[in-house]
Specification:
The structure is a homodimer of 187-residue chains. Chain A folds into two domains: 9-62, Orthogonal Bundle (Arc Repressor Mutant, subunit A), CATH 1.10.10; 66-183, Tetracycline Repressor, domain 2. The first copy, chain A, is 70% helix and 0% strand. Chain A has helices at residues 9-23, 30-37, 41-48, 51-65, 67-75, 80-90, 104-112, 118-141, 147-167, 173-183. In chain A, helix 5 packs antiparallel against helix 6. The longest helix of chain A has 24 residues, at 118-141. Chain A binds a DNA duplex (30 and 30 nucleotides) through residues 1-6, 29-31, 39-46, 50-51.
Chain lengths: 187, 187
DNA sequence: ATGTTTTCTAAGCCATCGCTTAGTTATATT
DNA sequence: AATATAACTAAGCGATGGCTTAGAAAACAT
């Protein structure tokens, strides 16, 4: 039989994810990736096929990284208050700076909105749609029954969340929490 | 004396601006720029010094491009309603697709938030700060007197505007106008 | 131990990157 | 017309981009 891999794919993907998250797709080179991931370019290409393949895996990994917050929201029983907590959770960066500020999905949406790359755009749209659905579910649980209003509100909250993700990269903690409070002021 | 330039700097900067606006800084190559601008690389470098120099000029050009809307807002006398109109104006893309959706300044903020490039970041921060000040001025004219609340509200509106700029790249017209209505719902 | 299979290292592939240079062409002065 | 100056064209610079390949090293089966 054959030699064993000296790395765990899930582990090196996480390293790649952080790099893509911090710098974006274009500004992250395969040389940077191999250093951060601690493996040779050969291994990157044999495991992930291409830079794009690795990026898709990284986005998937990021979505897994968010799963805790999303589950917390899904299990919440206090309606819109759960969504507000989700907003606060999303700006609660670990203090060791191991993780960039902002949101990889929003970054990707921004970088690829005008791109030809269908695959990456599709992955991003799928995820944001799922979040929106979850918002609707929680708003409905919160007592809202008007379907049209539910759509309008979830739409509002999704875009508000995207604004928060952009602002999180440069704004102060107070500005961010003020923003969240204003966003949810009369729900 | 010497030969005359065969192009007008302001005109070719505008072409460059649209390209940067559509693709971002990293994804726009000097070869793409020379084709879009209709001038040789030599001319680009002799006029603008570097790709970064051209980008800075492009951002400046974009700010000029927004000047109409900003003046309209500055001259408005109906308080927060003027800001709301400014939001609507910003998503009113010319139907000929000559111009990308979204906002070059917000794109740049996103792309350069984690970059080392002080110059570009500074230019973006300066502009967004000016917009925020203008929001405060209009909110004050609208009758709000509480300084702390003014700061909170302008901060909210600035981040809301950034969310709108991201969403404008992918969302439908209805989603965008719904979002604006929700944003200004109880001002 | 030998053979087979897979992963490793490290060198290198070609295309493109931002940028520069050599040499020609156009303008204005003399 | 001759000259000086600056902008033009187009070729090419070294560095880096994504990706591949040749050959050594490691794991298992026989």
């Amino acid at each position: 039989m054959a030699r064993k891999k000296e790395y765990i794919e899930e582990e090196v993907i996480e390293k790649a994810m952080v790099l893509f998250w911090r710098n974006g797709y274009e500004a992250t080179s395969v040389r940077m990736l191999e250093k951060a991931m601690g493996i040779n370019q050969f291994s990157i290409y044999s495991s992930f096929g291409s830079k794009q393949g690795l990026f898709l895996k990284s986005i998937h990994c990021y979505e897994g990284y968010l799963q805790g917050m999303i589950e917390k929201l899904r299990n919440s029983t206090n309606g819109v208050e759960g969504i507000k907590t989700f907003f606060y959770d999303s700006i609660n960066t670990p203090s060791d700076c191991s993780t960039p500020k902002g949101c990889l999905v929003t970054n990707t949406l921004n970088e690829f909105a005008n791109s030809e790359d269908k695959l990456i755009k599709e992955q991003v749209i799928l995820f944001t749609t799922a979040i929106k659905e979850l918002f609707i579910e929680k708003l409905r649980e919160g007592g809202e029954e008007d379907e049209e209003l539910l759509i309008k509100q979830s739409n509002y909250l999704l875009i508000a969340k995207q604004g928060l993700s952009v602002a999180a990269k440069v704004a102060s903690e107070k500005e961010l929490s003020d923003y969240i409070e204003m966003t949810f002021r009369d729900f």
